[in-house]
From TrEMBL:
Pfam families to which the protein is assigned, alphabetical: HATPase_c, HisKA_3
Name listed for the protein in its UniProt record: histidine kinase
Keyword terms of this UniProt record: ATP-binding, Kinase, Membrane, Nucleotide-binding, Phosphoprotein, Transferase, Transmembrane, Transmembrane helix, Two-component regulatory system
Organism whose genome encodes this protein: Mucilaginibacter litoreus
EC nos: 2.7.13.3
SUPFAM superfamilies assigned to the protein according to its UniProt record, in alphabetical order: ATPase domain of HSP90 chaperone/DNA topoisomerase II/histidine kinase
Enzyme class: transferase
An annotated Gene Ontology molecular function: kinase activity
Transmembrane regions: 6-28
């Protein structure tokens, strides 16, 4: 019996010894497949992330150009037209009247030059983002308020600091999306923006006094509001949107500045 047991043990050991390389090869193949799949998924997510950032940049520039076009039409063109009329001096104008009109026109042209200089700066996305999120939103609000479409009020709490260029790029686009929703769909007359900087938390809140909507209707509402939720997630933030008919819309974006976010879950 002892010999039989020994033979069985030898056979089992031999069988295991012969199968071991096969198991090792199988394990290595599975590991390589998983690694390859992980690399491919990461590359796909990275590609989607970069596409979203590029889309956000393009939309910011398009939205800025729209505002600039409106301001040129509603402000600068009118001022220059007034200057043209002002310089069309009557034949019997006195010297004092002529000098007064020339001085008025000179002041108006100087203001137009300043406005155009500001507009030219706003065309550069890199320049905008270099200013930081707070200053960028303030300049955009100043331009909107000057046009008079909607009144934008901004307040800042805490010590404003950089959240990172990519985060601020997306947050600025979220602000623009909310602004668009406020005057295109919500028909609001007032928009309140607040940026709160805490030690380990940042909040961006946007509230309008528009017509509002049923909060449950968000999935079927405009793509702008859905983009806000999706883009907040892109930078590791959470976006909450509250609204009801006649009560306007309230948007809150919360982010932990210390949290690493992805190009697909990378910094």
């Amino acid at each position: 019996m002892a010999n039989t047991d020994i033979k069985e043990l030898i056979l089992i050991a031999t069988f295991i010894f012969l199968l071991a390389p096969a198991f090792i090869v199988l394990y290595v193949n599975l590991y390589n497949q998983r690694k390859k799949r992980h690399i491919e998924e990461k590359a796909l997510l990275e590609s989607k992330y970069q596409q979203e950032l590029l889309k956000a940049r393009t939309e910011i520039q398009e939205e800025t150009l729209t505002h600039i076009s409106r301001e040129i039409h509603d402000n600068i063109t009118q001022v220059l037209s007034f200057v043209k009329l002002n310089l069309a001096l009557p034949a019997k104008s006195t010297k004092q009247q002529t000098e007064q009109r020339i001085e008025e026109s000179r002041a108006l042209v100087a203001q137009v030059i300043t406005d155009l200089r500001d507009l030219s700066k706003s065309l550069s996305l890199e320049h905008i983002m270099h200013l930081g999120l707070v200053k960028t939103i303030e300049l955009e609000a100043e331009r909107i308020n000057k046009i008079g479409i909607i009144n934008v009020d901004i307040s800042v709490g805490g010590d404003a600091h950089s959240l990172g260029e990519q985060r601020e790029l997306v947050l600025f686009r979220i602000f623009q999306e909310a602004l668009n929703n406020a005057f295109k769909h919500s028909h609001a007359t007032d928009l309140k923006i607040r940026l709160d900087y805490f030690d380990h938390l940042f909040n961006l809140t946007i509230q309008d006094n528009g017509v509002g909507f049923y909060a449950g209707a968000l999935p079927n509402s405009g793509s702008g509001l859905k983009n806000i939720v999706n883009r907040a997630a892109l930078i590791g933030a959470e976006a909450a949107i509250e609204s009801s008919p006649g009560e306007g819309c309230f948007i809150k974006v919360t982010i932990d500045p210390l949290t690493r976010f992805t190009h697909a879950h990378g910094s």
